Amino acid sequence: MLVAEKTIFYKAVGSEIEVFNQINQLQLPLLLKGPTGSGKSRFIEFMANELNKKLITVSCHEETSATDLIGRFIIKGAETVWIDGPLSIAVKNGHILYLDEVAEARPDVIVAIHSLTDHRRELFIDKLGETIKAHPDFLLVASFNPGYQKGFKELKPSTRQRFVALSFDYPNPKAETEILIKETGISAEIAQKLVAIGAKIRNLTELGLTETVSTRLLVDAAKLINNGLPKRLAVHVAVVEPLTDERETINALKDLCDLMI
Known about the structure:
By secondary structure, the protein is of the alpha/beta class. It contains twelve helices and nine strands. The strands form three sheets. Strands 2-5-8-1-9 form a five-stranded parallel beta sheet, sandwiched between helices. Helix 9 (188-202) runs antiparallel to helix 10 (215-226). The two termini are 38 Å apart. InterPro entries: ATPase_dyneun-rel_AAA (IPR011704), CbbQ/NirQ/NorQ/GpvN (IPR050764), CbbQ_C (IPR013615), P-loop_NTPase (IPR027417). Keywords: ATP-binding, Nucleotide-binding. It comes from Flavobacterium ardleyense. Pfam families: AAA_5 (PF07728), CbbQ_C (PF08406).
């Protein structure tokens, strides 16, 4: 469970802040679509901070169930006690609930949030036999990586159409350079070289990488360089190695990066 409290840097690349403010006013559910490391989670943290709202983040995986979100009974001493899950807490208290990679979760999670994504804005707790009306400030946000999930775990059209959706992609070179400088304090010269490396690898579609270079990886490389690690080594461990385990591909990418920084 994460609570947004500190000042957070976020570089807007479109109208996402304006859209989010409208969604917040109208109490609409939001779906963020985009590749790994493109700023979806950072955006939500930033908006929660801007709106002074508590943010509860659930990183979904194949074992995430409705019970994990809603709550469960536990034995405490000689009695059985109900413990609210993150979804119930957010619904009751008007927090933002962020379901990161919602398509990874079990199908019963989607069923559980259905009545929160339409005009009802209510949560049914089956084990208690109770229906809770969402607090006026409650906001449901989910993220989804269409490129990664394609052909594996898709969100059904009936589910997607319950959300307003925003698409995220990697920033343009100028914006990405600014992000690296602001996030790490790296020099503009090195930031530009890192951004150029990212752009080059993203265009190498023939490598067949499952995921490509995210802004997050470039930020990690910049942090390592700024902390004193040699530039090429920083790029090797922060950018190249996380992308693949294929030795030939790793060597080819290392050679490419060495020429660029």
